[in-house]
């Protein structure tokens, strides 16, 4: 029997397993998760080489989580010998005096994050390779769903839009981007080097077995542990891992990566919220999108990456739909719309850098798919769900940069007496990660579980 089992071998699960080994010394700890295979029916979002890392945010809790995690990047790289962090800086672009930039500025002031305000002219001066000006930041024409192929295109600005000014807030390194693939490799290496056990498998069910937990991997294979952490994120509700299903909405996400001409391009990561509706559901493609500078994929050429906010999202109601989305059997037309508009924006943003698609010697544009689990609070759920059972799930697509701290807090909570309040530290209120259930929990369930 193990002292602790961590279900889910992604960025948060691997970080939590590492911290459990460090905190407990001689305890037996096992990390359980699927092996990466083409025929797998469990997919992940960490199989990527480029995610933005930044402290600038509109939410103090996410800003605090990022600040704590990013402060340890160099230490993790040094201990593991694996580089995953590239501190090229991050730009937040939006309407001058608009809701988004005002919220970012206010949050940064509260968190003590230094930001530099830049005008359109200063953006052009700092990064002449990029076209970040008012002629770029315009809305897309609306399309009807019955049109075939890529029917969206940029439209002329209205008289009102011509008077809108855009600006940016710049955060210097350690902001930039990380390689989730190498980040995960580093965490797993540290965990196993410290004596942790790593088991490949998909957990089908969790159940109480006297004073311990039975972790069912199917085909008659079981693992027993005194305490369990569930870090399965988007896949949590698809299996009986918790007593009650959580309020999680799964949505599709499409990103594009495009081959570039040179590997010596020095540009920051960019977040754009330039449309009229800067929070909530996007009415415009430009209400939320992001761009990452050239990175290396699979020891191949350099690629830039671009992705969208909520504009092209489509809800996924079942495990079958999620698998079909990853495998490409569903939503091909919606995916096509996203790919077309992302490619069009990328062409306008840095068309002089990217390789044209009329060079057919090898593919220059590759789509990337993932699934985002969203919570009503836009923050993860991190709490005791039963005696000896903690879960950290529902990360809203924001957790890669903050995964080391979320893993650390998950490990500390699992080691904590769940009958007593838990302190998440400065700038994080005790109810920041309280779970919301899709089906009501009973009074007995609330007695068994501490939300702190």
From TrEMBL:
What is the organism field in this record? Aureoumbra lagunensis
User: What are the alphabetically sorted keywords of the record?
Assistant: FAD, Flavoprotein, Oxidoreductase
Required cofactor names = FAD
Family per UniProt? Answer: Belongs to the MSOX/MTOX family.
Record-given protein name: FAD dependent oxidoreductase domain-containing protein
- Which portions of this protein are annotated as coiled-coil regions? none
Q: Where do the FAD dependent oxidoreductase domain residues begin and end? A: 3-411
| The keyword Flavoprotein is assigned to this record | yes
Q: Is NAD one of the keywords?
A: no
Q: What superkingdom does the record give? A: Eukaryota
Give one GO term, molecular function aspect.
Answer: flavin adenine dinucleotide binding
């Amino acid at each position: 029997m193990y002292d602790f089992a961590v279900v889910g071998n992604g960025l948060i699960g691997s970080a939590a397993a590492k911290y459990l080994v460090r905190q407990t010394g001689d305890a037996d700890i096992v990390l359980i998760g699927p092996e990466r295979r083409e025929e797998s029916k469990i997919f992940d979002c960490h199989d990527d080489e480029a995610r933005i890392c930044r402290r600038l945010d509109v939410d103090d809790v996410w800003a605090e989580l990022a600040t704590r995690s990013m402060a340890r990047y160099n230490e993790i790289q040094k201990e593991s010998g694996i580089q995953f962090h590239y501190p090229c800086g991050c730009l937040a672009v939006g309407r001058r005096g608009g809701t988004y930039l005002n919220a970012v500025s206010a949050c940064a002031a509260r968190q003590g994050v230094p930001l530099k305000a830049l005008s359109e002219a200063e953006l052009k001066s700092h990064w002449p390779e990029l076209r970040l000006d008012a002629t770029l930041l315009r809305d897309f024409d609306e399309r009807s769903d019955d049109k075939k192929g890529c029917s969206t295109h940029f439209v002329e600005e209205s008289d009102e839009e011509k008077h809108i000014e855009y600006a940016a807030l710049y955060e210097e390194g350690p902001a930039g981007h990380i390689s989730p693939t190498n980040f995960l490799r580093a965490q797993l290496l540290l965990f196993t080097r410290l004596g942790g056990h790593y088991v490949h498998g998909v957990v089908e069910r969790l159940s109480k077995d006297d004073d311990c937990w039975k972790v069912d991997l199917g085909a008659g294979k079981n693992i027993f542990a005194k305490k369990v952490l569930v870090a399965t994120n988007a896949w949590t509700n698809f299996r009986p891992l918790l007593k009650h299903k959580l309020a999680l909405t799964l949505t599709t996400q499409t990103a594009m990566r495009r081959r570039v001409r040179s590997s010596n391009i020095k540009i920051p990561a960019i977040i754009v919220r330039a449309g009229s509706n800067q929070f909530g559901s996007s009415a415009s493609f430009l209400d939320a999108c992001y761009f990452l500078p050239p990175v290396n994929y699979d020891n191949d050429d350099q690629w830039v990456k671009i992705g969208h906010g909520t504009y092209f999202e489509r809800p996924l109601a079942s495990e079958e739909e999620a698998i079909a989305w990853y495998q490409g059997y569903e939503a091909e037309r919606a995916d096509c719309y996203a790919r077309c508009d992302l490619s069009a924006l990328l062409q306008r943003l840095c068309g002089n850098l990217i390789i044209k698609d009329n060079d057919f010697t090898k593919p220059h544009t590759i789509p990337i798919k993932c699934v985002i689990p969203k919570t009503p609070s836009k923050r993860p759920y991190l709490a005791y769900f039963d005696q000896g059972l903690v879960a950290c799930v529902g990360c809203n697509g924001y957790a890669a940069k903050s995964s080391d701290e979320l893993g650390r807090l998950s490990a500390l909570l699992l080691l904590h007496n769940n009958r007593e309040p838990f302190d998440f530290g400065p700038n994080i209120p005790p109810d920041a990660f309280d779970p919301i259930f899709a089906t009501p929990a009973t009074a007995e369930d609330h007695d068994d579980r501490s939300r702190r």
